[in-house]
Amino acid sequence: MNATIPNQAVEAARGWVFYDGECSLCLATVARFAPLLRRHQFDLAPLQTPWVQQRLGLNANEPLAEMKLLAADEQIYGGADALLQIAKKIWWAWPLFALAQIPGVTPLFHLLYRWVAANRTCVGNVCQMPRKNHFADYACLIALPTLALLARNVFPAWIFMWLLAFAIYFGCKWLTWRQAVRQMSNVKTTFSFGYLFGWIGMDARKFLEVKPITIALKPSDWLWATIKIIFGATLIWFVTRHFVATQPLLAGWIGMVGIILCLHFGLFQFLALAWQRIGVNAQPIMREPLRATSLADFWGRRWNGAFHFLANDFIFRRMLRKYDATTAILLVFLISGVIHDLIISLPAHGGYGLPTTYFLIQGLGVIFERTPFAKQIGLGQGWRGWLFVFICTVAPAFWLFHPPFIQNVILPMLHAIGAT
Q: Which of 400, 373, 398, 401 is nearest to 388 (CA)?
């Protein structure tokens, strides 16, 4: 045998897919997708094939770490890059390739691919995934955003934004619910339905606990939620219209703040109070963020508790097993930034990378707060800590909600709901 590709490669205009022929997971995947790949003019061969090893320059004694793609232009791709190049050629998988063009997303694909490879158990050169592979837990989180991405050019930008946000949100809800139900017993169907469709938080275990809680609710709790809804609605339907003609960006910001007040601080607060009223442990996702005196307190306890639970439980704790706390913190904020880039920049068709940069600044700020110098100058507490939080979160906010997002998403949405 030599390094010459067999004659049938002439018919494979898009290249060869090489896989580990001694890996049961790889063989099962090939059996499932081989017809699809061949329909799209990809041929397949095991990496153990002599001509393949010669063509790729592989050492027969080295472990096979990743799949390979030999493209029609003779370029060789490995691992996640190979999968993305294949997705590029298949119409329904193309959104994955498009997603990877957003700054910071491709490294996440690489990380996911390496995680799958690192968590295989190999015995006698036959590899398989661990037996406890709950793929169904992640099914919605994979399928729903993918379907939403296919609708990018079908709906107006603001509708696509809500579709994508809901797809990611419900995928996370499904993931947390599946894992909680598997760990708990006697979960009531009505509570499961309420958690999935009637509550915004992500701590499924607390919500689904059978033992009721007792919280002394005050009339002022309901009153403040009502005031926030009324104030937010006033900003949306009365204040915004006075600025839209002369200062559209300001009008967009006013309307967006009104929406956040109505939903996050008003309606979601009402939902939390209603569930608490019947004994369910549903904590508000917003907990007086203006009182935060440190970025760690702001992002870790007071702002969007639903996302904090996901980030802490599914990212930070797992990253700590491999990396130090500083790296784990930066990775959490990087992933948060990429998610916000998806929901904000992708519908806006612009501003790519700005939300990710915003959240990296937050991560660096959290790390800085932990340094001896920061503690020496009084950060993390008191008015100095509050001022530092305000500067870090508010000053670069135009990178998070950048002008393309305001112009292409928020303003059309405000017009559609009759606010302008």
A: 373
Asked whether the beta carbons of 102 and 352 are under 8 A apart, the reply is yes
For 187-221, the pLDDT digits (tens) are: 888 889 999 999 999 999 999 987 777 778 899 99
Question: Which residues are CB-neighbours of 345 under 8 A, at least 6 positions away?
Answer: 102, 351, 352, 353, 354, 355, 402, 404, 405
> Alpha carbon 141 to chain centroid distance?
9
Give, as one character, the DSSP assignment of residue 3.
S
pLDDT tens string 70-91: 988 888 998 889 888 888 888 7
pLDDT tens, position by position, 336-349: 999 999 999 999 99
Tokens of 221: 């709790």
Work out the burial of residue 32: count CB atoms within 10 Å of its CB; fewer than 13 is exposed, 13-18 middle, 19 or more buried.
exposed
Contact indicator for 381, 219 with CB cutoff of 8 Å: no
| CA quadruple 405, 408, 413, 414: dihedral sign | positive
Torsion angles phi and psi, residue 339, rounded to 5:
-60, -45
Percentage of the residues of the chain whose pLDDT score is greater than 70 = 90
Domains of the chain: 7-128 (3.40.30), 179-416 (no CATH)
Q: What angle do CA 263, 267, 273 make, to 5 degrees?
A: 140
Rounded CA gap, 64 and 101, in Å? 27
Residues 6+ apart with CB under 8 A from 32: none
> Is residue 183 exposed (0-12), middle (13-18) or buried (19+ Cβ within 10 Å)?
exposed
User: Cα dihedral angle (397, 400, 403, 409), rounded to 10 degrees?
Assistant: -130
Could you tell me the two tokens for 418? Answer: 């009759």
Would you tell me how many other CB atoms lie within 10 Å of the CB of residue 29? 13
> For 304, left (φ over 0), alpha (ψ -120 to 50), or beta?
left
User: Rounded distance, CA 272 to CA 206, Å?
Assistant: 13
CB proximity list for 68: less than 8 A, separation 6 or greater: 17, 18, 47, 56, 76, 77, 78, 82
